[in-house]
Please model this.
Amino acid sequence: MSKLFSAENKAAFSNPINLNNPVAVQVLGICSALAVTSQLAPAIVMGLSVTVITAFSNVIISLLRKTIPNRIRIIVQLVVVAALVTIVSQILKAYVYDVSVQLSVYVGLIITNCILMGRLEAFAMQNSPWPSFLDGVGNGLGYALILVIVGFVRELFGFGSLFGFQIIPDSWYVANGGWYMNNGMMVMPAMSLIIVGCVIWAHRSINKEAK
Amino acid sequence: MKALKKLFDNIHPYVEEGGKFHAFRSLVDGFETFAFVPNTTSRAGSVNIHDAIDSKRIMSLVVIALLPALLFGMYNVGYQNALAAGQLGNATFWGMFLYGALAVLPKIIVSYAVGLGIEFVVAQWKNEEIQEGFLVSGILIPMIVPVTCPLWILAIAVAFSVILAKEIFGGTGMNIFNPALITRAFLFFSYPSAMTGDATVWVSQDTIFGTGFAAPEACTAATPLGQAVTEGFAGFDCATIQNAITGLIPGCIGETSVIAIALGAILLLWTGVASWKIMLSVFVGGAATGYLMQAAGLTAIQWYEHLVLGGFAFGAVFMATDPVTSSRTECGKYIYGLLIGFIAVMVRVLNPGYPEGMMLAILLMNLFAPLIDYCFVQKNISMRAKRAIKK
Model:
């Protein structure tokens, strides 16, 4: 048991969440961070989907790592990821149909997410299944964390709601005689790029000495 | 002046290192160097002096050049209010001006308070000298928003642009984009209902402290440019051209009067603060594109009407010529200006969504200015290299 949670394994799990965050430090997976974060619910679903897919593709590739011929490894990795993405996509369609409609093509596009290929190439091909699993979960959660922060800011200021529930009182709005207006730019993908930039800014100023 | 100098001398001990009010050092420093030319000179081996006046003095000149447009804008706010209320006969000149001043002053105060506040905090935090760039941006911002723009969104936009368009890049002189235009772009894309449209945005319709008139319900007033786009060419009234030159049309506070802007342009060109090359080529580019568009039958707006309507003249004189964000090579300035004029008219004519293209044109060319400079510098280098090899 102590071996399962050795310092190395803990680091494989916790590093990607903070110090080696795939979005904030490695700047991977930015496209989907811009595309699916206009509301909180799809952002969370997307983050969880990527976490599940990264974790299990890491495990599968790690199990196969000694049998995969080096020259066709990318194809094998893609097949594994594509299979997992299809499964997740079908599950989403079955259980959270509304969100999967909102996510539209972006679930399918997880196949092309740089975080996945990066982890498979950099970690799963060299490590045994258990650390690979932890690494996959850590990277997925690190990605999800950024998505949740961006989604929170964008939904709160762009729609005045969180998870679809109105947070900013209706009586504040101009249409109801108040003074408040939703920030239209928050709904645009351009603003999520700026928010990701601010998150990276904050992250680097907090972790100045950790470089 | 002497009393002011004495006041600063008295304050100094309190804000020096270890003084009681050290937290306000940058504030005091900022105001002192604004009022008096500092007696410090650059150390040997660092920056050399390029000119007899420093950047605070240049900024003050631009602010003076903006005053005619600002004062006229105040009058026009009152004029449009009286016109909308149908009370033009009962309004006096000073009444309209007072009304406009009361409508515009809060915007100037908010813009300066938020922008300078952030600048002072950053200067104090980084232990740097206060930077003067916001002096001009702070007065430009209220002049390029509609008079009804709510103060709280103005404050957010100013904070956004000062932090994300300026301080992030290293403060005054390091910014890629014009901060005043970033403020406007933020407002334009974030709160479109408060920035464009023909409903009630362009004309102030309520009384302020008992001045002005309350307009009747459902009074609409579009800018002539907006009208030309939304209502087709039929809605475009050519008689407004005369008003567009004097400035008695609805629009952003400072942009309406071509005459007032021309006064500012004369001062800027006479003192050499702004580049005549950029100014001229923006107008030439806009006029040529406008002429071609009209000849091709894409628009009914004449080429000269493009130059006097909307923010074209204001942008050409005060925004495009910003020395920080424009091209620095002399040949590059022509390309930069021509493309601004070209893109501004293209957006106006070809994109029905945006009746005004000047802001987008200048921001886009701000982005390309370093590339233009790079090309001309490289061209120069290779030209000289060839000449040297030949001999």
